[in-house]
Amino acid sequence: MKLINRYIFMEFIRLSFAVLAGIVVLYLSVTFLKEADSFIKNKAGLLQIARYYLYSIPGMASQALPFATLIGTLLSLGGLSRHQEITAMRAGGVSLFGVITPVFIGGLLISAFAFLNNEVIMPQYTAKATQVKNVEVEKKQQRAIFQQRKLWLRGPDNSIANIDVVAPDRREMLGVNIYRLNPDFTVKERIIAHKLVWESDRWLLKDGRKYTPQNDTIAISSANDEVYNIVDKPADMSMIVKSAEEMNFTELWEYVRRLKSSGYRATRQEVDLYGKLAYPFASLLMVMIATPFSLIQVRSGGTARGIAMAVLISAIYWALTSGGRALGISGTIPPLYAAWFANVVFFVLSLAAIIRLQRSV
Known about the structure:
The chain is α+β, with helices and mostly antiparallel strands. It folds into two domains: 3-139 and 271-360, no CATH class; 144-239, no CATH class. It has nine helices and seven strands. Strands 1-2-3-4-5-6-7 form a seven-stranded antiparallel β-sheet. Strand 3 (159-166) and strand 4 (172-181) form a beta hairpin. It starts with a helix and ends with a helix.
C-alpha cells in the first residue's frame, strides 16, 4: 500500500473507531440512567453493574458500527477536501478512484469485523449480560443445566426435563421427556409427552404417558393435562431459551429448521437469520453512500449540508431495514428478500452516486 493510501486508510479507521467509542459511551450512559432504578431496587453491586455493561458493549457496537463508519467517512474525506489535500493528490496524478479506494477497503474490513462480532463475540457476551441481569441482579432462579441440540432443565419435585424445541411465543414446548428422581437419583418416574402447553396460568402436559417402575414391571398410565410448572410463566423462558441476538448463524439456522420441522411458521426467525448476513454490510454501504456527499458537498462549501444529508440517508436506511423486516414477517415478501431489501436499494443508489461523482470531477 502506498504511503498516501495508508494515510487515507488510517485516518478513516482512526476517526471511525473514535466515533464508535463516543457512541458506545453515550449509549452506556443513557442505558445506565434508564436502568439505574432497577439496579438500586435489586441492590446490585458495582462489580455486577460493571460486568453487565462490559458484556453489553459488543451488542451496542454492532448497532453503532454503520453510523460510526458513516461519520468516519465524512470526517476523513471531508477533512481532506477542506484542506485541499484531494486537489493536491489529483494534481499529482492520483485518480479519484485511487483516493476513495483506501476508504472502501476500510469499510470492507469494518464489515468483516462486524460479521465476526455478530457471529463470535456478541452472542456469547449478550448471553452473559442476560445471565448477570436475570440471575445475579434480579435473583431469578437459573433452571437450565445445559443446552445443545435439546434443552435440559431442572423442574419441580426433584425432576429433570428434556425439551426438544420451544415455540417462538414461549407458550409451547415440544418433545418433552421428564425424569422424576428418588433421593438417591434413581429414576422414580418417567413421563413422555408430545407437548407442554401454557393454559389457564399453568403448564399442562398434552398427549403424555407416565412410566412408573414397579418391581420387575413398568406401569403405564396417562399423563394428559397433568400440571408440570417448569417455570412460573412463559416470560421466564427468556432466561432459558436464547434470543436471536444470543445465537450465531449456525445456531439460529438449526433453531429455524427445528421449528419448521415441528410445524411452526418461523418467518420472524428466518428474517433474523438472513439479517445476520445482511446487516454487517451496512458499514460498507455507509462508506459508499457517504463518499459522494463528503467530497461534493464539502468541496462546494456545504459541510453542514453534507453531514445533515448523510445522517438523513442513515435514517432512511434504518427505515428501509425496518420496512423490509415488517414485510418479511407479515409474509408479503420472502424472508431472504426482506433481510437484504435495504442493502440492495442502498447499493444501487450509492453506486449511481459514485458513477455520477466520477463523471463530475
